[in-house]
Structure formats: C-alpha cells, structure tokens
Amino acid sequence: MRRSRLAAVGLAAATFIGTAVSLVIGAPSATAALGNNWYAAAPYLMPVSNNPPDPVTVMNATGLKAFQLAFILAPNGGGCSPTWDGTAAVSSDTNVAGVISRIRGAGGDVSVSVGGYGGTKLGQTCGTVAATAAAYQQVISKYSLKAIDFDLEEPEYENTAAIANELGAAKTLQANNPGLFVSVTMPGTAAGTGWFGTQLLDQAKSIGFSPNNFSIMPFDGGFNGGSSQVSALEGLHGLLMSHMGWDSATAYSHEGFSGMNGKSDASEMFYTADFQTVYDYATSHGLGRFTFWSVNRDRACVGTTDNGVCSNVPQNDWDFTKFSVRFAGATPPQTTPTPPTTTTPTTPGGGSCTAAAWDKAKVYVKDDAVSHNSHKFTAKWWTQGEEPGTTGEWGVWTDNGAC
User: Fold this and answer.
1) Is the dihedral of CA 333, 209, 123, 127 positive or negative?
2) Which of 77, 183, 312, 338 is the most buried (most CB within 10 A)?
3) 326-346: b (≥16 Cβ within 10 Å) or e
C-alpha cells in the first residue's frame, strides 16, 4: 500500500470517532478471538485519517467482522515508542481505542498493521530486536490484540538491519503471545517479489520464523488487471518453496494477496472483476490471506478524485469489502474450528410464498426477500450460497416465519 495511504492524512477523522471515544479510558474491552480466517481477510482501514467511514456501518452493510487498522510508526521526532501515523502516542490513545471498542461491541475485532509506505518505522529507530519487540508489545497489550501485520516497505524494506529487527520482533511476539496471528506484507513484482523480498524470506528462514502468511502487494509495478496479479502470486508461490523450503501445499497456505481497489498510485486500474479473478485463484489454491487497501477507498468518488478516500472506478459502497467477507467464509480457520451447520426445522405454511424462491447461485443484498422450505427469509447483508434456515457463524438470513 503506497502513497495513497498518506494522501489525506490531513483530513479530520469522521465525526463518529470524536463522539464515540469521549468517555473511553485505557484499553478497549477484549473480545473473544475470531477464527483466523477473519484476520486473514481483514481489509485495511485508517481509523483517524483519510476520511474513515464508520466501521459499524460497514459491518452492518456487508457482514464484515474484522479490520486491519493502519499504521503504527516511530514518532516523527524520533524514538522507539509506538505511535499512530507518527503523531499520536499509543500510550495515551483514546481515539483508536474508541474505534476498536465500537467494532468489538458489534461482534467484530481488529488486527493492527505496523509500518506502511510512509514515515519512520520502529525497526529503523529501536536499534535491537528486543527493543523493537518491546515497542510492539505495548500495542498488543494496549489493545488486547489477537493479530498483527508487519507491512515492510521502503525505505525500511531495503535496510538489512531494520528488517532483521522487524522479523526478529515478529518471532518474539509469536513466542510471547501464544496464538497471535502474524502476517508479513511486502511489495510485489511480476516475479512475485523483488531482490529485497527474497532477502527478507532468507532472513526469516535463517532465524526460524514462519508467520501465518507472507503477502505481496501486486500493484504500482506495471500490473494490468487480475490476471497479472495471479501470475505474480504464482511467482511468489515458487519463491516460498525455494527460499522457505516448503512444499507446494504449505507454500500456498502461507501465501497472501494484498491488493489495491480501484486506481493505484501508478494509475493502474483494478475493478471488482479483477478482484474476482484473484479471489477465484486464492480460494481454489488455498491461499492464506486475501486483503486490500483500503476500506477508506471502498466507495465511488463524488465531488473528489482523492485516491485516499475513494476508488476512482465505478462501484457501490463496500463492493470490494464484500470479497473479504466471502474469503473469510471460504477459508477454513487455522486454529478455531467453524461451528457445525445445522438445519432449522420448518413448518409448512398455510398459503403460498410470494417471494421468489432462494437461488444458491444468486447474490442477495440487505433486505432482499426469498422463500425457502415454505418460509419467507430476509437478508441482513450481502450473501451468496448461504442457505436460509441454517445457523452457524454467519446467520445472514432473518426467518420471517411460515408463508
């Protein structure tokens, strides 16, 4: 995720942030960990800049349960303490804590991303693995995190000592926080990733560090649609086997896609059809992560072409986020089993159902009505292929009773 991440840093946070956090003190209340499939699908959200949408509104509209909050950096003035965007100390934060509390109160959770394209990274300033890990542990403890993302980009990406600090810290955090979901995100190239990316993989292998996934960002590098991104992911698959020593299945399961929805910083255009192409590849090959930059951009441009706050492609609000919801449903959790699906008994209605019969292949959105097993059902959010009258993790259909 590149320059558009910081394009609108000067924008004020949405009003909901200011009102929601006025009484928040300290860490947000912890929530039960979601299945790792949700952390693997969490799209990026800047919670205090780039005109953030209300995350609960997004959750209600799409069924999304997890966000990837960005970014933790070193202070702009230097030092080894974690801040949001280089300006707001984590130690005294209430704004992002309030956003997290709202998400958890709605049944969701967050991962936090460290690094990104701009600013100074803690791996550059903390000096040692232990100091870098201690700084990130403050973030994990402050927000009771179950997941963290290491977004390793320029110029840190090209700094051998800084990358050693970041990967060493990630390994330390894994050991000190059992069950922590750890992703590593890095630039993508047509070959999968470049020379510095392969050096990163070699460093991880040398210290015995295996994250839940290594993800590439196949954009801003001459990419042309979803097919070119799939080709890059196949390239990464080969690199994971050759540099990490994994077999094919293990490499796929530890591989991730981190895309950019809409117009990239290099004016590449990625449409929902391109996301569908990559989604089909990711699910058919068992990839371990599918995410994108960003929810802030997941809306059509109205009155602005600012790449930080809208996509610059034709879309409805949250069209790209719905791919995250689908991926979470299609990807088995790595540690938390999916609850079994059971069929709810139905009673034949006394009359005919006027709503159209449910179609497994059809896409339904919020408030769409269908009939199934002599009952009428209404969709709570976007869904496809989820049978009305069943229970489980999703619960997308409201049973309106016999018809």
Assistant:
1) positive
2) 183
3) bbbbbbebeebeeeeeeeeee
| Catalytic choice (153, 156, 268, 386) | 153
Q: Is the pLDDT of residue 6 over 90?
A: no
* Tokens representing residue 38 in the block: 């949700």
Q: What are the tokens at 80?
A: 């080894």
Q: Convert the pLDDT of each residue in 189-248 to its tens digit.
A: 999 999 999 999 999 999 999 999 999 999 999 999 999 999 999 999 999 999 999 999
311, 190, 278, 59: CA torsion to nearest 10: -40
pLDDT value, residue 403: 81
Per-residue pLDDT tens for 89-120?
A: 999 999 999 999 999 999 999 999 999 999 99
Establish whether the linkage from the previous residue to 71 is cis, with ω within 30° of 0: yes
Model's pTM, two decimal places?
0.80
Whether the Cβ atoms of residue 20 and residue 13 lie closer than 8 Å to each other: no
Q: Is 153 a catalytic residue?
A: yes
